[in-house]
Amino acid sequence: MSSNKIYMTQALKKAWQYQLRTYPNPAVGALILYNNEIVALEAHQKAGTSHAEVLAFISAYETLSAGEIDFDRFDAHKAHEFLYALPKEFFSECIIYVTLEPCSHEGKTPSCASLLAELKPKKVVVATLDPIEGHDGGLKRLEEQGIELEVGVCEKEALELLEPFLIWQKRAFVLFKIAQTSNGKIGGGYLTCKESLTHVHQLRSVCSKMMIGGNTVRVDRPTLDCRFTGDNAPDIIIYSKEDNFDRDISLFSVNNREVKITNVLKIFDKPSFIFIEGGEGMINALKDKIDWFLQYQAPKLSSHTSSYSIDLNLEFLFQDKRGVDLLLWSKIDKE
Amino acid sequence: MSSNKIYMTQALKKAWQYQLRTYPNPAVGALILYNNEIVALEAHQKAGTSHAEVLAFISAYETLSAGEIDFDRFDAHKAHEFLYALPKEFFSECIIYVTLEPCSHEGKTPSCASLLAELKPKKVVVATLDPIEGHDGGLKRLEEQGIELEVGVCEKEALELLEPFLIWQKRAFVLFKIAQTSNGKIGGGYLTCKESLTHVHQLRSVCSKMMIGGNTVRVDRPTLDCRFTGDNAPDIIIYSKEDNFDRDISLFSVNNREVKITNVLKIFDKPSFIFIEGGEGMINALKDKIDWFLQYQAPKLSSHTSSYSIDLNLEFLFQDKRGVDLLLWSKIDKE
Q1: Cα(first)–Cα(last) distance of chain B, in Å?
Q2: What CATH architecture does domain B172-332 belong to?
Q3: Which of A39, A100, B124, B318 is 20 to 30 A off residue B305, Cα-Cα?
């Protein structure tokens, strides 16, 4: 593996930590090298806040100046303003690796391509071009500034990272969550570690809608809020033919939440991020709609009798640790 | 993460690909940088053959000279001889990362420390010192040559990699294999991919003894050979109180194999590598003896009813892909 690929792989790994949490933005990672030392490794964390490149330059500034900034680095306007005001040439010996072409358009945040054109790093290495029409053109702007460019390093992996983003341009991206022991046993209270539970709440806080099965509501009586992160609870769709639920359970009493009960699936046609938690019945009912699975595997074997009983071929996409647990991202193999 | 750690992590990952396959040697990985480009990434593959550092220098030679060697690189004597004959200074701009202190003693293969002292790379970065008394001293020899040294990069991870090696100095290291779907279902013919099956046979070919349960012999009637790698089949211990096995099954007819039937466990006291394949009964019977688990997870959910039914806390050590499968190394959490 070349050094280029190794650095890009680090940026990709960092981006996967925020996969889906940037909805409706893509997950993007960035790494900065100075004098062959890594001086920054960052990822875009949340839509409306600073992009990966901006966080990376701020972090590189801190490393290289051995100082700390005194403003909110996630405030993109402040961060851009700060970087624009640095002495020219500050980053002229830096190489930046970005998993996606820097954005050329001004949205909620200023354009990263304009920023990079001004900061003029020695070289910009990009895994893949921006696939959205009208969002491309970032690299052209850098080229005009005479910045050395390299495109296509780890492109396949970068496109896998981008898949949810590409899907939710056209229709709902659908993620199904499974929490289990390492030998596939489910149920019996919290299985996974605090870091995994926090991650679930982070996903709940950004999804368009959460969907659960009627049986889960009846049996588990869940609240489905985001208390581990302090965020607003997601709107809920209970996938059920019948509306016979006990309205006294906490699910229905969360503030500012909409709960809808339906078995009509046209919601999946709308560009959005649908997050499903449920049992095998839900997988069976929705397997044509599910794009990806996210398995949290707790480090234990269990004699518990419950497990998902369903036949489905998957393709493993990315695996990582979260606290002591294993996080395993996969997609349904539709071939 | 610093560049040093990233390079060492690559060397560790490479070494994990050969974890246990180097028995009775430790798993070791090495990476060589030239002009900040990776020119070699290698691991020790099999006891009695060239060590990681030697394979890395050979591979770096090929990269830097854009040529190919014309002898067996795994023949340590030939490889050392070749490297000694290269022009002095050939590697003088190289930095080598090794997960373990280069060996100072002459065993089946010549000393790597002597070789490095002669090749004089610019810098040697080592994750951890050789923990075996009498095997240390490698670094001292390099220091005497004025080679720049750095020790302790990713030391915790390097010690995890070394754990089996440290255990089999004193007693048996015991690995239990589990092949399952991603949701923990077992049985029903081959579950895992060809690359995983080959890996199992690679482990069988180097273990001191394979151990299986009496029930597995009676029900599955396995052969337990190494036909995917062409190696000799391992000796078998059938863990059983009774000797009532059908001697016509292929297990008993493999050439040059010893099959022993016993329920006496003193074999575990002897420095060795015991590889267990079996059902939950075997885990239950031997859980005080098992050190590590190796799970092969096939990328599928299955409705099969069989799964391991046992309660055991684990600690995940390392996860990797093997073909389309996930390989998950863990140890029993004995706290």
Answers
A1: 30
A2: 3-Layer(aba) Sandwich (3.40)
A3: B318
pTM (predicted TM-score): 0.95
Residue A148 bears catalytic tag: no
The verdict on a CB contact (< 8 Å) between A185 and B307 is yes
Facing residue for B311 by CB, picked from A1, A303, A333: A303
Rg (CA), chain A: 22
C-alpha R_g of chain B? 22
Report how many Cβ contacts below 8 Å link chain A to chain B.
Answer: 123
Q: Give me the DSSP letters along B136-183.
A: --HHHHHHHTT-EEEE-TTHHHHHHHHHHHHHTTTSEEEEEEEEEETT
pLDDT tens digits, chain B, 335 residues: what are they? 788 999 999 999 999 999 999 999 999 999 999 999 999 999 999 999 999 999 999 999 999 999 999 999 999 999 999 999 999 999 999 999 999 999 988 777 889 999 999 999 999 999 999 988 877 788 999 999 999 999 999 999 999 999 999 999 999 999 999 999 999 999 777 789 999 999 999 999 999 999 999 988 998 899 999 999 999 999 999 999 989 899 999 999 998 899 999 988 899 999 999 999 998 999 999 999 999 999 999 999 999 989 999 999 999 999 999 999 999 999 999 77
Domain boundaries defined on chain B: 3-167, 172-332
Fold of A3-167: Cytidine Deaminase; domain 2 (3.40.140)
Q: Is the minimum CB–CB distance between B63 and chain A shorter than 8 Å?
A: no
- Rounded to the nearest angstrom, the gap between the alpha carbon of residue A4 and the centroid of all alpha carbons in its chain is 23
